[in-house]
Specification:
- It contains six helices and five strands, in the order αβββααβααβα.
- It is of the alpha+beta class and 168 residues long.
- It has two domains: 51 residues, no CATH class; 82 residues, Arc Repressor Mutant, subunit A.
Amino acid sequence: MGRSTRNQVVDDSIKSYQAKLLAPFAVLGIRTEEDWLTAIDYLPVDTPLLAPQTLLAREVCRQLQAYLNEPDFVFDLSLHISGTTHQQRVWQAIQAIPSGVTSSYAEIATQLHSAPRAVGRACGANRIPIVIPCHRVIAKNGGLGGFMNASEGNPLEIKRWLLRHEST
């Protein structure tokens, strides 16, 4: 009985993603619920891939691949992401930043009558990166700022890759 319980946990963790798509900087773990995209996780590049398990996961992968091929691609997906009113406002502002353009935490804070750190926290809480392009938000001095609640390491390498990709 203990063995089957352990297998169930493994099976449940496998089922938590509806697809795992290889990108140049990570494996993108795609989570969906019903007709909604709910999360994209950056997984290590050696994570086993998973073919789309649903029609929506297939469409999410198709659109992510289109973006990886053409940085000006505009996503058209139904998103479901829970957050505070402030976070929702920040995410809406971020989605308005065009590919190849950046905005600072301070600029978004001014636009929303907020504070730069609060904008940064909302960016860090974003569960649907790339589609909600928090990588386009940088420090006021032109530096990268943070990414995925980190100020160094692999998350910043991902942010650099995404910004370079969109500047070509």
